[in-house]
Amino acid sequence: xxxxxxxxxxxxxxxxxxxxxxxxxxxxxxxxxxxxxxxxxxxxxxxxxxxxxxxxxxxxxxxxxxxxxxxxxxxxxxxxxxxxxxxxxxxxxxxxxxxxxxxxxxxxxxxxxxxxxxxxxxxxxxxxxxxxxxxxxxxxxxxxxxxxxxxxxxxxxxxxxxxxxxxxxxxxxxxxx
Length: 177
Description:
Layout: H1 3-9, H2 24-35, E1 46-51, H3 54-64, E2 74-80, E3 84-86, E4 89-90, H4 92-109, H5 127-134, E5 142-149, H6 164-167
Antiparallel strand pairs: 1-2, 2-5, 3-4
Helix pairs in contact: 1-4, 2-4, 3-5
């Protein structure tokens, strides 16, 4: 599969996952792809934890409350550190977003599916911090996202996307040509 095919085939999978163990070497490839993402001023503010231990997954899923994600045999937790990169600018959100997208594409390329879960764990109920505590993450890191990883048990469904011409132009906003 080419990178472009993986990008266009990727979708947010919210269905059940098959009970098939994810190979460690695949998790390493996924995480390496994430850590290869660009980083503002090369501060490398993104760190990752892959979880494939059934007992640990169960503890994390008790906090998360996403029923379909609970069936995934592995997850990758995305950590970030806020640090000044340039003048008073912090780029950690851009850094971890680029890492997540690289991982989502790699997950599809390897034959798995996933979904970017962030809002549910960074809300005021601080689920991400509770997950971080279970994983022994120091307080100067924030757990901002988790990606379930597994083989889809259900058919994939893709949302309709707006046509290219509605969102992309050449030489000016909404210009033709």
